[in-house]
Amino acid sequence: MLEKLLSFSRHHKMALLMLLDALLLPLAMWSAVLLRLGGNWDPKLDPFLWIFAVPPLWVLPIFIKLGLYRAVLKFLDDRIVYTVFVGVSLSVLVLMAVILMAGIGVFPRTAIIIFWVFAMAYIGGSRFLLRGVVRRIDALDAPRQPVLIYGAGRAGLQLMAGLLEGREYRPMAFVDDNPQLWRRTFRGLAVYSPHELPQLLQDTGAELILLAIPSASRGRHREILEKLEPLHVPIKRLPGMADLVSGEVRVTELREVGIDDLLGRDPVPPQPELLAANIAGKVVMVTGAGGSIGSELCRQIVRQKPARIVLFEASEYALYAIDQELAKLAPAVQRVPFLGSVTDYPRLLAVLQGMRVDTVYHAAAYKHVPMVEHNPVAGIVNNAFGTDTCARAAEDAGVATFVLISTDKAVRPTNVMGATKRLAELALQARHAAGSRTRCVMVRFGNVLGSSGSVVPLFKQQIASGGPVTLTHPEITRYFMTIPEAAQLVIQAGAMGQGGDVFVLDMGEPVRIIDLARRMIHLSGLQVRDERNPQGDVEIRCTGLRPGEKLYEELLIGDNVLPTEHPRILRAQEYHLAPAELAQHMAALRTACEALDAAQAFALLQGVVHEFKAADATADWLVSARN
């Protein structure tokens, strides 16, 4: 019956509520008079029975004017009490006036006050009773997932209110670190200690934990997630406070726990003067603009209001994608997209001169270790000669600053990719030593979270498909940093160098990849399947180190490092080759690459990058096919 009533149109529901009030008001007055008279009816009131029927004639118009019937029952809040209070109070004043004008002297005056109390109780109580019934029916129609809310602050309470109005989640309880909140209740939900979580999950049947602490630091998020990991319960979180304040997202827009929540440190706020030094009001060019780092550099650059941003990219689709994104992100900034290769000197020179470029951020590179390992000639040509070609074109075009995005794999490299990036560094250092007019700066850092080829998206995909999660070695470690933080630090480091500088970004502590895999599995609500837990959900399988892969990455070749004005940026003091010596190596290497002589190119690469410890399994696929 109730379900049929709820299916009525909006106007029909309003009419039914008016009919209900028209019945409740006479009942409230009758109850008030009987209570005042001690339950005994006064026959003197018989001629004035009409007074019990007329209150709806003025009360209903008052309620209509106050908007009482426009409120949706399911979403009623405490403000409805104020509306009923005003409406009933006005109706009592009108009732008093009617009784005086009609001369009903036998009507007990104190019954009017009692009528006010009963009318408030009947009208207001009926609304909350109906709201409960509607919500109950709605909950039965659409079973919702039971959840716990971690954080009983303002954001947590707003999240609870939003979830109660929705049809997806049913909040069961709060969890908070503040002992002063324990055992308090908010709209019927109690607050518990984090130590009670295991029992609470069992008692409530909660299938998800929602983190509602958007103002907490990234370090604090990591601490909480580490405590929640053994529970093997999926976790989602609110967006950051900045997104909530800006209005970009709502409090009910939950997100998956990001890998930066698991590993990230609290980023150091960027220094505005360093961010703007090479960009504001200048023409800036990014090579590899459509890649993971290149595209984030573009996003950071347009926020600093350059006179123009030049996008240089070999992939047509990647160039189109970043150009369209920047058009929405910063429509006022002029964008000029160019297709081209970083090994094409005439094309580079024409673009740099034609656009009058002031600053170049060189992010174009082949970076996938196994791919470059088996395509060494292509890796050398693109990474080493491509960098040298870009730097030569920048120097000839009168570019003021050239910033190379390097990698921790350039330090004592064991793979071709790392060796080519170290050779790119040596090429820039040699240009500086030869008196280049262009200030060449190199910035070296480790893995960035979410970049193409990163283990993080691969692990997510493997977990979603039921495993196994594959890694190459149980002891392998890597440094990690978020893409936005890396891009900001690159821009700031580029503003500090005097030329020939190698800057190293502080990546924090290295992370064991197997620990990362376990955390991602646990925080997805699953268990690792191994010898101790053969009934687990996802297996972690070690496949063996790939050709050229290191167990441990490094950021410094030597121990000589100097601080800079930024706490996360260090200046490395490392060897470089004399320009004439490097030129001889580069000429021989170019000849070998042009002849597609992979073995000779590989041997020459070992000769010029002194600390290159090549892997035994390195083999060019083309040479293997010929043999």
Automatic annotation (TrEMBL):
Polysaccharide biosynthesis protein CapD-like domain location: 284-573
Membrane-crossing residue ranges in chain numbering: 14-35, 47-68, 80-104, 110-130
Pfam families: CoA_binding_3 (PF13727), Polysacc_synt_2 (PF02719)
Signal peptide: none
Keyword flag Isomerase: no
Keyword Repeat (UniProt): no
CDD domains: UDP_invert_4-6DH_SDR_e (cd05237)
InterPro entries: NAD(P)-bd_dom_sf (IPR036291), Polysac_CapD-like (IPR003869), Polysaccharide_Synthase-Rel (IPR051203), SAM-dependent_MTases_sf (IPR029063)
Keyword annotations: Membrane, Transmembrane, Transmembrane helix
Homology family: Belongs to the polysaccharide synthase family.
Name of the protein in question: Nucleoside-diphosphate sugar epimerase/dehydratase
Species in which this protein is naturally found: Vogesella aquatica
